[in-house]
Design a protein that fits this description.
Chains A, B: It comes from Solirubrobacter phytolaccae. Chains A, B: InterPro entries: Ald_Oxase/Xan_DH_a/b, Ald_Oxase/Xan_DH_a/b_sf, Ald_Oxase/xanthine_DH-like, AldOxase/xan_DH_MoCoBD1, AldOxase/xan_DH_MoCoBD2, AldOxase/xan_DH_Mopterin-bd_sf. Chains A, B: GO terms for molecular function: iron ion binding; oxidoreductase activity. Chains A, B: This is Xanthine dehydrogenase family protein molybdopterin-binding subunit. The structure is a homodimer. Chain A is of the alpha+beta class. Chain A has three domains: about 10-120 and about 215-290, Aldehyde Oxidoreductase, domain 3; about 375-455 and about 610-755, Aldehyde oxidase/xanthine dehydrogenase, molybdopterin binding domain (Aldehyde Oxidoreductase, domain 4, 2-Layer Sandwich), CATH 3.30.365; about 465-605, Aldehyde oxidase/xanthine dehydrogenase, molybdopterin binding domain (Aldehyde Oxidoreductase, domain 4), CATH 3.30.365. A seven-stranded mixed beta sheet of chain A has the order 3-5-1-12-9-10-11, sandwiched between helices. A five-stranded mixed beta sheet of chain A has the order 7-15-14-13-8, with helices on both faces. In chain A, strands 16-24-25-26 form a four-stranded mixed beta sheet, sandwiched between helices. In chain A, helix 10 links the parallel strand 14 and strand 15. In chain A, helix 7 packs across helix 8 (about 270-280), helix 10 (about 340-345) runs parallel beside helix 11 and helix 15 (about 485-500) packs parallel to helix 16 (about 525-555). The termini of chain A are far apart. Chains A and B meet through helix 7, strand 17 and strand 23 of A and helix 7, strand 17 and strand 23 of B.
Chain lengths: ~750, ~750
């Protein structure tokens, strides 16, 4: 079964509308919550007048920060509603809870927030400037309260800079500073025959999942907080809610509901709001963000500034990389992607020396979250653009330059860990053979083919799984992993193969945190690699129980039996085969002599399975309008082993399309005062079908030694290199290089104009 | 911890009303179902007029048999509403479903069932008589439809009698006949110096749980039937519903809710009704039986007739036993207790020869179910009464007679299985030492002390369990076992002891059939013995994972570590101990290097752990009124190992009290037409506190080699011998022997009169 394209098991129910998302869940006595969002980007709260809202028919309560049963924690989860200070336009300031969604909305419109304006900090450059105004003046939850400027976070260590890369040590807005360095970068750059430098800016980009943040919460009579949520991490959410509200872990039960898209963005955004209201009101409360609330108060990918310089010898050997990656942490973010982005800005290459600094900066923007390969598309945009320039300067084939330096098995990554296996080389070789690569020099005017390599190290987290055979001979896989991006199909394939049943006889159940084995966040391209391995082991253990039953019933040693096609067969005597269902029926009975045909498996992967994807993007630039059209796109991705090529290709298509959004279209823009411009899908420029060219997917299979059947995560790698490939395509077509994403017609046109003028 | 009396963990929530029973569960859009019960005991259905009911405001539907989506199966579950024939007064004939309970009740009163009277068969003697009218004329579900009299069931084999014990081969009402025989009984009885004979009759007795049968069912959009029910067997209910409605097992999900009492009676009575309505109407439907419906349409313990003769040599060696046990199967019962009762009527004694026949008989009574030690109290009533008579005739001490013949380890039971360990001897010896036993000959007139030995072989069924440590260092046990009779406390004790945590740090979760490991019915005194062992193994496996983590963190081999008091300690270096919570915190993180601290365990016990309890009952008979008063009661029970003596004693108290109900009070009486007399707790004579004497509990601990920490089931054994002990007490006080239960004042008085007259 492994390696054959099959239809998605979860597809039909989703197409028919039979999947029950959180917003569809019936609940008796349900209340509906609507947040009141701050209008200003930065302000002190003088007072919140809730009287008119509370008088609104159907409104049950209007909660503000002081009403919430908060116990601690830090960051946004610990401050679900603004405390004394508003730190972004769109920050939830109050929560109106009503018997109907309409009443909640009407109530929210009547809440009057009285504020005193404070100067907003909206731009990373402005935030970093010496003497910049602080983006937050009050202490954040979880910070030491003694200093009003404690929002700076990292303290002495963070402030004590290395002096490199533009100082900024005097800014009150630097929350975190991290530095990753090894070797002698000065010497490396000095020894280089060519050094290239660049400054890159990428925008805030929303994950744009179809289903908004949705949580349903209630409190059982025994005090247990029960949360059904559109979350990527049931156990992580349990931990977060337990921290936020000071509850014992066993007094919080989280069920991950089917997800209508997430892409990294669904972790502890809506849950604290619904849970707080349920804890206060002791009734079920649901919050489903509106699309505008999503854009204003979600947790999109943050804007970044990247400055890199790198050198190489004349024969193309990279010598050193130096740089600084600045990530926007918004007003409340306790999580940033800048450190990971700094690591990834070195690409999957061997560097004799590196020196990379990451700065997390507080601004008056929304708090950032993870989005498919967090920090990777900006990093690849920077480093792959510079490598392209370097190849030009060195007059080397861009693939040859990369092949000369790309990491291979046995090398150590920037994190010092040895790489067991890595298919980046194979991906590059694969696109080199593609006709489009050969045609790149014979294209019409204003067309070009850009190349880039995307890289994702792959996440790790412990996971457990159960496999259990029912008395009718069908197998159930139980994990805590949310139903998202076809995970179910991977588990089914793995369990079916490991146990020996047809896929139709296997199903997956997502258990809640009370009853399911532990499992990490469904993200970071780690589900197949970690959970999947646990599923494989659980299925193997269950198979062993099945063989025990068969051995006892057939009086044949287990090692002389095999499982195939729904039967247990004595080796060499297929005529004596017994159907699995017949064996199962002997187990689950009064006075049954056999243990249940069940198995548990778990894993804690210690070696990563890094992913890579090489892209060729065929672009055409309209010099009149600056519009970039994509004529074709080729992606060669190392997928380890494609359990179901149809789903893997789906991930490659989706990642590439989202990369096109990063490259050409998407940007959460704001006014000079920091208010979001456009908060609907009509205004936010996602790639539409006419903007996505035919995508040719080339599956490169370099088996991951620790993955189930050699498989590994495939979700993140395809997005990483897309903006860089398109940028390099634009350069090939026009000789202009844009350092800014998205590369909108206006920006391209302006760059074309200045290039022409010069 | 094991062996110390502790408070029940589940007690507080139940006392505070915080336990959510099925009747308390909120459900959006819930419909309420009310059954229409047959008035006649036996009738043909001409028509059911539902028009007036359907016109009732709030009534959504009125369902009759033809409306139900039935697919097969047999017995009562396959015929939730009467098909063409009513076979007992109280049989559900229609189901009214309404928006409110009141509307459902009003609707039910308006359903008009038109019937043609058929002669009812209400009495076992009448049912067995040659030429008896048939209690059912139409074929039952699951029977071959070809013969109208196929209700007889067992077919040729069942009909082909052995001629012994009163024939009855010509009755159309014998559903099942089973015979258990070995050795030469004729020769054994001929060789006996004394032979005693008796005929015994016991009544229908209701389990009288406080919470009535309750089921909430709905259908998920993907077609899954979800059932939350007050059931003793989630997996058994799933299997039953899948069979009844022709659903794949994975399309039925059953959650066992906390039980407000069950005692064997809560299995597939309410579930088919609620599930059928939910499947038809596609809305959530709940049914909660009224108390009258409970008495009329539950599944109480059936009436029985027992005829036994047994012989012994002059020195008290038993030679042979012969007998017939007739059990009432009512009009729809596909499950009877007569075969088990026949087996148990030999008591836990060595018999050189036995010949015991069981007859299951169809009548126009409700279908029977299991009730705490099904068939055992009547069996012990018969055999222990006759042994008492035998001791009198042989002039032997009744305990000596029993000790001479009682089974001990190494003996084989009537089922041919060797007994590994058995504490009946120790129980008898224990009561022999009790002062009450010595005082029995020096009591005032009309007082007496009766002795009896009760015996329960113990059930077996495979079971699985999971133990998982949370990141805060607390342990969760997951099984499918319903929360009933303190099960939770046993699991907590076992897991705490096996893992090495204080009990307060352990909790139990009852998972549903979708996510929890398999487990059998919570009944037959097998939960602690089977599930408990699985819990022990799961905890041991989880502990192994904990030691792996500690070994890696402390760099000490796992075998040099011990777990105690919430810490992992290096042997000989307690100063280096690490708190379990601190180790747990290292596991459940991004890039965690340790597998989850979780374990799975399962069991399929193959050797039973039979239970025994010896009773002394001190009775006083009022010759004026026939009233029997209990002055004291002593029970010595082999409990294997008392995990929590407080709970074990609670079981001994409860079992004894229910045995007093059997002995003196309880009877589901009916009119000559078969209508139930009295259907409320005001009329049904449960023992009240003034009728239950102080009960002295003597715990005899003969460890069960395969039980967790030597423990075994303790629920059933205490009830078995109570009616016999009281009957023997009455004989000691008055010299009269009643062969009928309950021994009401009227019956005792009448017997005293006839004894006096003679």
């Amino acid at each position: 079964m492994i390696g054959t394209a099959r239809r998605r098991r979860d597809g039909e129910a989703k197409v028919r509308g039979a999947t029950r998302f959180v917003g569809d869940m019936p609940a008796h006595g349900l209340l509906h919550a609507r947040p009141v969002l701050a209008a200003e980007a930065h302000a002190r709260i003088i007072g919140i007048d809730t009287e008119a809202a509370r008088a609104q028919p159907g409104v049950v309560a209007v909660l503000t920060h002081a009403d919430l049963p908060l116990a601690g924690g830090s960051g946004r989860a610990a401050e679900p509603l603004a405390r004394e200070e508003i730190v972004w336009a769109g920050q939830p300031v109050a929560l109106v809870i009503a018997e109907s969604e309409a009443a909640a909305e009407d109530g929210a419109a009547l809440v009057d927030v009285d504020t005193e304006w404070l100067e907003p900090v909206l731009d990373l450059d402005a935030a970093l400037a010496d003497g910049a105004p602080p983006a937050r003046i009050s202490a954040r939850a979880g910070d030491d309260d003694s200093a009003a400027d404690a929002h700076g976070g990292g303290g002495d260590e963070a402030r004590g800079g290395d002096g490199d890369h533009g100082g900024a040590a005097a800014s009150p807005n630097i929350a975190v500073r991290q530095r990753l360095q090894a070797g002698d970068v000065e010497a490396g750059l000095a020894a280089a025959d060519h050094v290239v430098r660049g400054r890159f800016r990428t925008s805030w980009v929303h994950q744009a999942y179809l289903e908004p943040q949705s949580t349903l919460a209630w409190v059982e009579p025994d005090g247990t907080l029960v949360v059904h949520s559109s979350t990527q991490g049931a156990f992580m959410t349990r931990q977060g809610l337990a921290n936020t509200f000071g509850l014992a872990m066993e007094k919080v039960r989280v069920q991950a509901a089917p997800l209508g898209g997430a892409f990294g963005g669904k972790l502890m955004i809506a849950e604290p709001l619904a849970a707080a209201a349920a804890l206060v009101l002791r009734r079920p409360v649901r919050i489903v963000f509106s699309r505008t609330e999503e854009f204003s108060a979600g947790n999109p990918a943050p804007g970044q500034l990247l400055e890199l310089e790198l050198g190489a010898t004349a024969d193309g050997a990279l010598t050193a990389i130096r740089g600084r990656v600045v990530g926007d942490r918004g007003g409340l973010g306790d999580m940033g992607v800048e450190a990971l982005s700094a690591l990834l800005s070195a690409g999957p290459y061997r560097w004799p020396a590196h020196d990379l600094t990451a700065l997390g900066v507080t601004t008056n923007r929304v708090s950032p979250g993870a989005y498919r390969a967090p920090g990777a598309p900006p990093a690849a945009f920077a480093v792959e653009t510079l490598l392209d320039e370097l190849a030009d300067e060195l007059d080397l084939d861009p693939i040859e330059l990369r092949l000369k330096n790309v990491l291979v098995a046995g090398d150590k990554g920037l994190d010092g860990q040895e790489i067991k296996v890595f298919g980046a080389r194979e991906c590059l070789e694969r696109v080199r053979e593609h006709p489009l690569y050969a045609q790149r020099h014979t294209l019409p005017a204003d067309e070009g083919v850009g190349l880039a390599l995307g890289f994702w190290p792959g996440g790790l987290e412990p996971a457990g799984a159960i496999c259990k055979l029912d008395s009718d001979g069908r197998l159930t896989v139980v994990t805590a992993a949310a139903d998202m991006s076809g995970i179910e199909n991977a588990f089914i394939a793995i369990a079916a193969e490991a146990f020996g049943l047809p896929e139709e006889q296997v199903r997956v159940v997502t258990g809640d945190t009370g009853s399911a084995p532990y499992g990490g966040v469904a993200g970071g391209s780690k589900v197949t690699y970690t959970y999947g391995r646990a599923v494989e082991r659980a299925a193997e253990e269950a198979k062993q129980r099945l063989l025990d039953v068969a051995a006892s019933e057939l009086e044949i040693a287990p090692e002389d039996l095999e499982v195939a096609d729904g039967e247990v067969r004595p080796l060499g005597a297929p005529g004596r085969a017994v159907a699995i269902a017949d064996l199962a029926a002997k187990v689950y009975t009064f006075a049954g002599r056999h243990r249940p045909i069940e198995g548990y498996g778990s894993t804690a992967q210690v070696s990563r399975a890094p992913g890579a994807a090489a892209h060729l993007s065929h672009v055409k630039v309209d010099r009149e309008t600056g519009e970039v059209r994509l004529l074709a796109h080729v992606i060669a991705q190392d997928v380890g082993r494609a359990l179901n090529p149809a789903l893997v290709e789906g991930q490659m298509h989706g990642g590439t399309a989202q990369g096109i959004g990063w490259a050409l279209l998407e940007e959460l823009a704001h006014t000079d005062e920091g208010q979001l411009q456009g908060g609907t899908f009509a205004e936010y420029a996602l790639p539409s079908t006419d903007q996505v060219p035919p995508i040719e997917t080339l599956l490169v299979e370099v088996p991951a030694p620790d993955g189930p059947f050699g498989a590994k995560g495939v979700g993140e790698p395809p997005v990483c290199g897309v903006p860089a490939a398109i940028a390099n395509g634009i350069a090939a077509a026009t000789d202009i290089r844009l350092g800014v994403l998205p590369m909108t017609p206006a920006r391209v046109w302006a760059e074309l104009q200045s290039a022409t003028v010069v």
